[in-house]
Structures are given as structure tokens and as C-alpha cells.
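Thread: quick sanity check before group meeting

JM: Hey all, I'm pulling together slides for Thursday and realized we never actually wrote out the predicted structure for the chain we discussed last week. Dropping the sequence here so it's in one place. If anyone has concerns about the input, flag it before I start.
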Amino acid sequence: MIKKTFLLTGLIALSSLCFSALASSTLISSISKAPIGPDGDVAGAITDIVIDLDTSLDPAVTGRSLLAGRTIKVTLPDQFINQQILPVADVFSSPSCVPGNLQCSTAVLLQGWPQHPVLPAIPPVPPGSGTPQYSLSFEEPNTLVFTANVDITPGAALSGPGIKQVHLLFYGFTNPSKPGYYPVSINAETGPDGTLESGTAMVHIIPHTRPSINVTSAFNPGSPNTFYQKTLAGELTPLAYDFLLWDRNGTAMEGVTIQMVNTDHALLKQGKRVVGHVSIDAPEHASGHEVFTQQPSSLSNAPISGIPAGRLTSFFRAGSSSGQYEINFVINGGNSVQMFVDAE
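JM (edit): ok, ran it. Output follows.
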């Protein structure tokens, strides 16, 4: 999900309050299926996608801010059908719009990794009792509007680098019935002093479900970022990698293990069948690095959606040399995810 790229086009606009516009031809860097389900980008399925803004997902890089009264508007083309059978609602605004019971069309602002959002309200429980940070509304059938009620800036109110992604959990929508590339547009007052940034990118709607490997952060308290970690040469990373696995039928992939072939290559295996690969790009002269599991993937419910998935917990040990290690997990016939480890 990290490195997918799509055709981008820029758009310059003026805000209604006559702020000078900040042109951004790269406001959106990529759009992909959300990691909490197997088919968020499949033709005719429920719309569940993540939009990456044009900022590095490295948590050391500052994201965007949304000042009080400012908006982010996300527009899907008409081929995405708003069934108008579910209300638009902020997550945790009611018992029917909470993780595991999302009877709503909703969205959250993410800080660069899964399950680490800027929540609409703090605290989020009980539903409807929190202090609202932003609210959601539909300006048109397919234009979602985030409106900030307070200044949402890096480090406030949840620790983190700021806004880097937009997750659309449009459970009242269906994707276009025909596969293809469709434009998604954003007009966001997220530039300096609330200036307007605009951009359009293509989301690829695929004809059928494909196998996928998806990073989840929900199994660690506080949903920390496992994409970018630091450790000492020869030592394990502080956090294990948790992945959600689905096959081409959208069924949980159980019984998957990792088998090292050499220090730079491992196999994802389900029984005797190879279902994917892991490659390790290590610093020069490094040795002893490895990725491994302690038990096969097992059935678990995906966070937020509750969809049954195969949960694979894996571990990475840095090699003998300091420097950056890049670990690329690839599922056959599907996607890939890349993890980064700086060893000292």
C-alpha cells in the first residue's frame, strides 16, 4: 500500500473566503484498498479506500494541519453510487457508527499508518459524549466534507505527525459496476494558514477480489507505527509485524508461515504451497538478518470491520551491520507492503 502510484493532475482554486490558493499538483500520491477488508476496491463492492496525501509516511516527517473552521472535501465520481440507505456520521457519534457496527458512511483522518486516526471526538466512548474535533457532512451525494471544530495540528490532540491519509469507510456506497480507473478529487484548506490545496488522482477499481497482505496496528496498545522502526544491529525490532491475510476469494488465509531461503529471501508458505515472498534489502556486508514467525497465521477479526482474516505475526532481526533494512512482503497475485528498520 505504501508505494502504489497513480496518475496525478493539479487543480488551482480559490476559497470562498478569498484566501490565496496554494497550487498542489501532487496533493494525492496514491489511492488503495483499505487494509481492513479484502474487497474495498472491487467493482460493485462496498467502498472502502485509503487516500495517501503527498507527504512521506515516515512519522519523522510532519503532516498537514486543518485549522478550526477549515474543510477537506473529497469527491468521488458519479459511478460510485450513494445508496442513501445509511446516514453519514462521525465515528463514535452513535452506537450504530462504531468499529464493528458501522451502520453508516463515515471517514477518518489518518496520520500515516493503520488504526491511528485523528478521531472526531475525544474521548470516543461512550458514543456521542466526546468533544467534537471535526464533523462530517455531504455537500452533494458524492462529496464528503470534513469541517474542523478545533485546530487539528501535529501532536494535537493525538500524538503523531499530523494528517497524511484519508480513510473513506463508505458503507452506504458501492463501487462502480465496471472495473477501470476513476478520478477522486480533494479540495483541502490544509496549506499554510488554511490556504487551499487541490488535486485529483485515479483509483483503480478491479474486477474481482485479489489476495492481499495488510498491515494492522490494532493489536499493539496505542496502535504504534510498525512500518518504521529502530533497533540495534543484531537485535529484534521493538514491535512485531501483524498482517491480515485474505485469499482471492476474500477468505481468511490460515496456516501461513515464513521459511527463510537465504539471508535476503524468504517464502510465505501455506502448507507446502508458496503463497508469497519476502525480500530483505540489507546494508552492505550485513549478515544474520532474518524474518520469522513463531506460529502459523490464525483466524482473527480485522479491526474496525470485524471481517474474518488470517492474522500473521512475524518478527524481524537486524543483521550485523548498521544502516537501513527494507523488508518487502509480497502475496502472490496480489499486493505488497514494505517495512523499514534503521539499525544502529
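AS: nice. Residues 99 and 304 are 4 Å apart (CA to CA). Residues 8-205 form a domain with the Immunoglobulin-like fold (CATH 2.60.40).
JM: adding both to the slides.
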